[in-house]
């Protein structure tokens, strides 16, 4: 993708919202998502992500001039950051060379984020372990589509989404799980099906719609026990097995 973009003078924005801690093979070496082989990588720190600061997110970029511009935009377009102005022994008058916004992260959020970064390797390792156990527990249920990890990729398993068989009713399966005390959700949401887009002129999107109607996300968090995983797997198999 990067090679094609460069050939046509296009910019590459990497959607890494759910990918913090994930890795991929690049030129024979493992790299973390976010090193940014494109132009910008975008992360989310929403509470549901595996690393959170409460909300907000982060950008990474290899371009020094873009980085400077992003820092201006995040703080009202102010030319001098507070950390510099407050620490100076000379009076500094800041300027506002561009129209900016209030996108600053608070000190408390930053402190939480730094601790989350310290814990991130262990969080990812545990999530990968749980994903492996899910695949083992559900391997006998051949009617359930399990997520795969492509060669050259190391997922952080932000989500473990399974595909239901065509005969299964998604809502009924999710209700059966909920009745057993297991929360699930749909794998994706299709924007074109929402009221805000209902008057839009879009072509048929059968694959997207099929993913929304046929996938569910199973619980996955580091504190899950083997008994938790076995309960999820057995309940799912019972709710979806051929009649």
Notes on the protein architecture:
The protein has a domain at 125-243: Aspartate Aminotransferase, domain 1, CATH 3.90.1150. The protein has seven helices and nine strands. The chain has helices at residues 2-7, 64-74, 82-87, 107-138, 170-179, 206-214, 226-240, and strands at 13-15, 23-26, 29-32, 40-44, 57-60, 153-154, 160-163, 185-186, 215-218. The mean pLDDT is 94.
Helical fraction: 25-40%
Q: Low-confidence runs (pLDDT<50, min 5 residues)?
A: none
Ends distance: 45 Å
Q: How are the strands of the largest sheet arranged?
A: 1-4-5
Instruction: Give the topology string: H per helix, E per strand.
Output: HEEEEEHHHEEHEHEH
* CATH topology-level name of the domain at 125-243: Aspartate Aminotransferase, domain 1
Our count of helices gives 7
**Global structural class:** alpha+beta
Average predicted local confidence, pLDDT? 94
């Amino acid at each position: 993708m990067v090679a094609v973009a460069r050939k046509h003078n296009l910019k590459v924005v990497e959607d890494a919202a759910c990918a913090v801690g994930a890795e991929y093979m690049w030129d024979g070496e493992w790299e973390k998502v976010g090193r940014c082989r494109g132009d910008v990588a975008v992360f989310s720190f929403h509470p549901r992500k595996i690393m959170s600061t409460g909300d907000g997110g982060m950008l990474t970029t290899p371009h020094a001039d873009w980085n400077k511009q992003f820092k201006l935009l995040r703080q009202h377009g102010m030319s001098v950051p507070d950390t510099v102005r407050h620490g100076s022994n000379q009076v500094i008058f800041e300027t506002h060379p561009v129209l900016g916004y209030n996108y600053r992260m608070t000190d408390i959020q930053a402190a939480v984020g730094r601790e989350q970064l310290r814990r991130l390797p262990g969080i990812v390792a545990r999530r990968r372990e749980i994903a492996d156990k899910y695949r083992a527990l559900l391997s006998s249920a051949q009617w359930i589509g399990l997520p795969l990890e492509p060669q050259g990729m190391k997922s952080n398993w932000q989500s473990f989404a399974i595909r239901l068989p065509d005969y299964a009713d998604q809502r009924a399966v999710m209700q059966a799980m909920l009745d057993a005390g297991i929360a699930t959700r749909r794998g994706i949401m299709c924007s074109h099906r929402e009221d805000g887009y209902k008057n839009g002129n879009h072509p048929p999107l059968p694959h997207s719609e099929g993913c929304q109607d046929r996938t569910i996300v199973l619980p996955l968090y580091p504190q899950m026990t083997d008994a938790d995983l076995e309960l999820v797997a057995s309940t799912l198999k019972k709710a979806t097995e051929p009649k």
